[in-house]
Design a protein that fits this description.
By secondary structure, this protein is an all-alpha fold. The protein contains four helices and no strands. The longest helix is centred in the N-terminal third of the chain and has 30 residues. Bound molecules: protoporphyrin IX containing FE (HEM). Protoporphyrin IX containing FE binds next to helix 1, helix 2, helix 3 and helix 4. It comes from Alkalicoccobacillus plakortidis.
């Protein structure tokens, strides 16, 4: 892959993950407190951010020649996205049973951040 295009994907990846978590937190609180403010816009935004993370992550993974630790990071990132979706859907519909998904969310996020920042990996 062209170095400049790789840099673009990389910047998208590191530039949007925190934003994704912030939009998730805001949407969760809006649903929890039943505040009908910009819900549609934020919902669409978070889906676009999921897409940006997945596409840019896949591009980085490709450039890194599918090294095992990044394949694992990618899979756990998908589990994290799944947990966020379930939490948002359940909270919106006032359903119980989110605690197991919060546990998955927390565990997956911890692993994704550690692997994303190469903690404990000597390259
Ligand atoms: C919710 C989704 C995701 C989050 C929160 C996330 C978070 C992160 C973070 C924090 C980093 C480190 C960025 C930095 O160095 O400043 C990173 C890097 C990376 N991510 Fe993700 N990511 C997500 C999805 C994905 C997906 C779906 C894939 C693969 C298909 C992926 C593959 C990678 C790769 C290969 C790196 C590069 C690691 C390195 O250069 O050391 N990510 N990600």
């Amino acid at each position: 892959m062209n170095a400049q295009i790789f840099l673009l994907y990389y910047k998208v990846h590191i530039g949007t993950w925190l934003l994704l978590l912030i939009v998730f937190g805001i949407l969760f609180l809006l649903y929890k407190w039943k505040i009908p403010f910009a819900n549609r816009i934020l919902r669409t935004t978070i889906w676009l951010l999921y897409l940006a993370q997945i596409l840019s992550g896949a591009a980085i993974l490709y450039t890194y020649k599918f090294q095992a630790q990044y394949i694992i990071k990618g899979i756990i990132s998908l589990i994290l996205i799944y947990a966020m979706e379930v939490i948002l859907r359940k909270t919106k519909r006032n359903r119980s049973g989110t605690s197991a998904y919060w546990f998955i969310w927390f565990t997956a996020l911890s692993i994704v951040l550690l692997l994303g920042f190469n903690v404990g990996i000597n390259n």
